[in-house]
Amino acid sequence: MYRLVGLVCFLWSFLAFAGHHENIEHPDGMHVINAWVKEPLPGVDATAIYLSIHNPSNDADRLVSVSTDLAQISEIHEMLIVDDVMRMRRLDSGVPIAPDQFVKLEPGGLHIMLFELNKSFKVGETHTVILGFESAGEITVPVKVRAAADAAHHHQH
After folding, report:
1. Which residues pair with 126 in a beta bridge?
2. What share of the chain is helix, strand, coil (3-state, %, to 5)?
3. pLDDT tens digits, residue range 53-91?
4. What are phi and psi of 127, to 5 degrees?
5. Beta strands in the chain (DSSP E)
């Protein structure tokens, strides 16, 4: 019985990792995982991209830029609370990524803002963004469009 439970747990872990691993980009040693963009709300000309970055190298790096044909303006931002008020600010110096560090760009924290959108987004579509790193250079990353409701549900887990 315990062997069966152990086998099931091993297979589940393997399949979960395999499914998760297919979303990783590997150029220049930098891993970008689970990149997605929130479907813009009707009448809103802005949205956000979320993803996770892993720096497996022994050297620190920094996310310094983002570009895409999805919007006229793309910026790295962070949300923070100042005097009990949630504020968003652009990070001109980028996001430092220490050796072997995971950095999450997620709702309520670090994220990529897109302003003055160039095209409409449909749930399920995949688009691309180019992330610029100080050392690793540019990495083209696919981002999948999620519905706003799905994005809120995903963030709860």
Report:
1. 144
2. 20, 50, 30
3. 999 999 999 999 999 999 999 999 999 888 888 889 999
4. -120, 180
5. 31-38, 46-55, 61-67, 71-82, 85-90, 95-97, 101-105, 110-117, 126-133, 137-146
